[in-house]
Write a structure and sequence with these properties.
By secondary structure, this protein is α/β, with parallel strands linked by helices. The longest helix has 11 residues, at 85-95. The chain has one domain (2-247): Ribonuclease Z/Hydroxyacylglutathione hydrolase-like (Metallo-beta-lactamase, Chain A), CATH 3.60.15.10. The chain has 7 helices and 14 strands. Helix 3 links the parallel strand 5 and strand 6 (108-111). Helix content is 18%, strand content 28%. The protein is globular and about 50 Å long.
């Protein structure tokens, strides 16, 4: 199975990266719809498309408005955008306000069960005989993480949260083959990370080690960090060895 990293930065695109969007073409599954969403068109292999949003911040949802062109002349059985009810309501009211974007593209909203203190996670069936579990993340306005499991393979996507060594979501991602985890800041920016709901490198590495994942790929990289290694991966690899920085266009076999 192949996961395509279409957009690996956060907040705004730069000359190297677009904002958050990941795709498994053979199953028609997309995780987040940032500015990289336009790249989905060239990878569509199925007659269905299921787009799972982590939250409603613009760098993760603006690509929903691109679907007119993404789907142009495509024969689709269904296209669904999945999100919690409060996020769906916000996007309908604001992103698709008649003053901002007056016509909704050809997709249906699919409301996930709203998570709460009593309901920390939910699981649903997905293509390929798999399951998708979504769980709460700490982030301003609220966000979801996703875990996808199939026989013999697994993947987790954790973006827009402040990683800590004993994070509540560690059990949700335990043992996955591949963990995509946001990393916006190098070490030393912990106060800014806490303020903005993002992560520094060492806590992310500690989360991967604590969850015993197979491979850690960093995404949602600060768009101002244009160098190849803005984090100091050699030190992070002393905590968790199998770590890399994701890039736009990267294809991950898992």
């Amino acid at each position: 199975m192949k996961l395509h990293l279409l957009g690996t930065t956060g907040y705004h695109p730069n000359d190297k990266r677009h904002t958050a969007c990941m795709m498994i073409p053979e199953l028609g599954i997309v995780l987040d719809a940032g500015t990289a969403m336009y790249r989905v068109r060239d990878l569509i292999e199925t007659s269905t498309l299921d787009i799972f949003l982590t939250h409603a911040h613009l760098d993760h949802v603006i690509g929903v408005t691109f679907l007119f062109d993404v789907l142009w002349e495509m024969e689709m059985e269904h296209v669904r955008v999945h999100a919690e009810p409060d996020k769906v309501a916000a996007l309908k009211a604001h992103l698709f306000s008649k003053l901002i974007f007056p016509v909704q593209p050809p997709f249906d909203w699919a409301q996930l069960i709203q998570l709460s203190n009593e309901t920390q996670s939910q699981t649903m069936s997905i293509g390929g005989g798999g399951t998708l579990t979504y769980f709460r993340l700490k982030h301003p306005g609220g966000a979801l993480g996703y875990r996808l499991d199939w026989p013999g393979r697994s993947l987790a996507y954790v973006t827009d949260t402040t990683a800590v060594e004993d994070a509540d979501y560690i059990e949700q991602i335990r043992g996955v083959d591949v963990l995509l985890h946001e990393c916006y800041f190098p070490d030393g920016w912990e106060d800014r990370a806490e303020l903005t709901g993002h992560s520094c490198i060492s806590p992310v590495a500690k989360v991967a080690a604590a969850a015993d994942v197979g491979r850690l790929i960093l995404v949602h990289i600060n768009p101002l960090a244009m160098e190849d290694d803005p984090f100091g991966l050699d030190r992070a690899r002393e905590i968790f060895a199998n770590i890399e920085i994701g890039t736009d266009g990267q294809v991950v076999d898992f």
